[in-house]
Structures are given as structure tokens and as C-alpha cells.
Amino acid sequence: MTEAPIAITPVPPADLPRTLGELRATGHEFRTVKQELRDNLLARLGSGGPRFPGIVGYDDTVLPEVERALLAGHDMVLLGERGQGKTRLIRALVGLLDEWTPYIEGSELHEHPYHPLTPAARRRAAEAGDLLPIAWLHRSERYGEKLATPDTSVGDLIGDVDPIKVAEGRALGDPETIHFGLVPRTNRGIFAVNELPDLAERIQVSLLNVLEERDIQVRGYQLRLPLDLLLVASANPEDYTNRGRIITPLKDRFGAEIRTHYPIDLSLETALIQQEAALVAQLPDFLVEVLARYTRGVRESPSVDARSGVSARFAIAAAETVAASALRRAGLRGEREAVARICDTVSVTSTLRGKVEFESGEEGRETEILGHLLRVATAETFRARLAGLDLSGFTDLVAEGAIIQTGDLVSADELLAQIGTVPGLAKVLDRLGLGDAPSAGQAASGIEFALEGLHLTRRLAKELTDDGRTIYGS
Fold first, then answer.
1. Is residue 4 part of a domain?
2. Rounded to two decimals, what is the model's pTM?
């Protein structure tokens, strides 16, 4: 029986100070969140250590802009189409915070022991003095995030009067009757608003003070809390979403607007697939390249709505679907090793159709367009990988009358038995990155790719049968 994963809250080291007096004795100095991020980023820049692990394709474009914004102490908005890793990048900022930071024990807003904000915390600090108990907050707990939805309220983000506290007998004028929202609860951390334009304009207004004056207002309270946080937002371009906009005063308060993008070149596209896809079977590198070219082809196709973009999740889901097809074949045919083949890519044209927004004139042709683009990507990869090789061994095999049957339910052993010994096969498999001693599954994958490439370059006939098999030959 497999147990469900359990979230683990980091435990602070036992040697950390536990009172205000002990903290002062260590020489600890207070830094704002933005100072903390700046200092830690400068240290990473100086040491050459990784600043944003797991972020692919932005090293020379987006990340330098993000680093400049952090060094300047700017709140920022990341603007880009869907599936460009905006949320992943925002969450990676947490890695630049100190691993542990002190706060007044029990404080709702994680107030620093040197700078209590709320009346209750100030009273406790005055009464306890150096004996004020402190606790420690891990960097992973200093991140707050809200997906903007039309029903988001000011109370969700900023706070509201807590009727239970009022019912306990406290006066309505008492600031301690306030139930704080997500933004103040992320005090001394990073707060992210995803899809900011989806936030109603009247709700966006509530963030104006947070960005400029660094305080909040709750209903009629004269409450000034100098919040210490970095505010980051993500948004799709306004001409695509049409669901809302970022109001001008709020735009003006963000220090930096940073445009994200899809991977610029093919190598970055393949690296992203290899990093992110959770594969249940072997997916040879040349098939990853086919899917990367395919994704780029769909993205650039005039039949696809360029404003909506084609998410990186399209390529990742395609890789996972192809691997799953190989695993299904292994299960049905009793293969010990599941290796994806080019025939496994056919299913993605129907299963991933919903991830692509087509131009209005292409209704009814979606699968046909995706199928054509997949064939183009396969042919391009074939030329890139096998150009200049003598493939006459394959064409001669068919010219002598052989008919080769393959398909997503034909096992590797069945395919190899039909091929036999083919001159030049070793060079083909080597060019495809399958090594000197490929397994049966890998060899079958390389052979089928070569056959499909020869067909797509009009050197080999191909026919599809009613039961889903593919026949190469005359």
C-alpha cells in the first residue's frame, strides 16, 4: 500500500536564539525583505551559484531584468502568454530569502522582534523586554499567493472586521477586531497575485497603498501598518485575455514590467521537455526533438491564434502521452521494456487539440492541421539527424518485395523480426543517439523513425490499415 505524501514543515535548528535578548547578543541586524533579496542575490552573483534553479530559457533575456528589478527594490509584474513559466519564476524568488528569519512568537503578521507593528505586539514587547519570546520562520513559509478570480474580495486580500472578536466584547474601534487578509499575513515575505487583470478593478484599488505607501486600510479604521514585502504579479497580455485590465494607477506603482517568452531556440525547447515531463517509458532524444519541433510549428502556424500562444504544457503533455502509449503497448504485448516509437506520436493530435486555440476559419480542420504539423516536424528531425547517411539498405529491403508492418500495438521483437539485417543500420542508430548496443526497444524505435522519414521524404510508400497498423512497402 502506497501512503500519501506528507507535507513536512522545516524545523529550526536548536541553537537559534529564543528570546529578544539572545537575538541581540548574536549581533543580528534587521533587514527589509527587499534588502535581504538584494544582499543574497549579490552574494549569488559573486559566487557564481545558481540564482533561479529550474528556470529554462531565460538566462540571457528575462532573468537579467528580474535581477535588475530585485537589486533596485522594485515590485514587478511579469507579462506573457500562458505556459511561459511566470508562476515558476515567481516561486523561485523564495530561494533568495534567508533560510531562517526571527519573528515575535505567536505574531499573526510575523513581526520582527526589533520592529513590532500591531498594538498587541508592541504591548508584549514593552512588557517582556529582552525576555520577549521569538520563533523562526523558514523561507518556504514566507511566500503567499492568490489566483485572481472575479469573486476575490478586499477582505480576502487586505482584511475585514472579525465579527467573532466583536462578539467577544471588543469595541468596533479597536484595531484588534480586524481579521487580516492574505497580503498582511505575508508580511516579511513575497506575495504573488496570479492573473492580475482578472481581479475586479475596485479590488485592484485596495493594492495601491500596499505598493506605494506600504500600508493597508481596513474599512474605516485609521490603521497604519508599514508592511514589509515584495509584491509580484503575473498577467497575460491584455489583447489576449479581454477579461479585464490592470488599472493605470496600479500599473504605475509597479517598478518593473517584465515580458516573458517561449523558448527561443530548439535546444531550450527540448531541455524544457526533458526537465519537466514525468515519463512512464523511455523517450529517445530524437523523439523529444520531434515533439519540440512540433510544438514550435504549432506555435508559428498561421492557423493557430498567435495571441493565445501555445503553452509549454503542450510539449510536456505530448511527451507524457507518447511515453504512456509506449507503456500501454508494453503492457498489451508483454514487453519487458517500454520504449516510445514514432507511431506513438499520432495520438497527440487528438488528445492535445483542446490546448490550442485555432483561428475562426479553421473550424473542423483542427486534427488535420495538427497531423500535418506533426509530419512536418518528423521530416525536419529526420533531415537534421540522418542527412547524408546511406539509407539504401531500407529502400532495397522494400524494393525486394518486403512489407514491414508496424504500429502502436506491434511489439519491438515483431518489428525487428521483419527487418533482419540491414546495411547501415548501426550508423543510423548511432546518429539517433541510441549507442553501440541498443536494446530491442531502442533499435525498433530507431528503425521505425528511419522508415517514417523515408516515407515523408517520398522514398518509401506507406499505407494505414483499418485496424490501426502501418505498412511500409509497395
1. no
2. 0.86
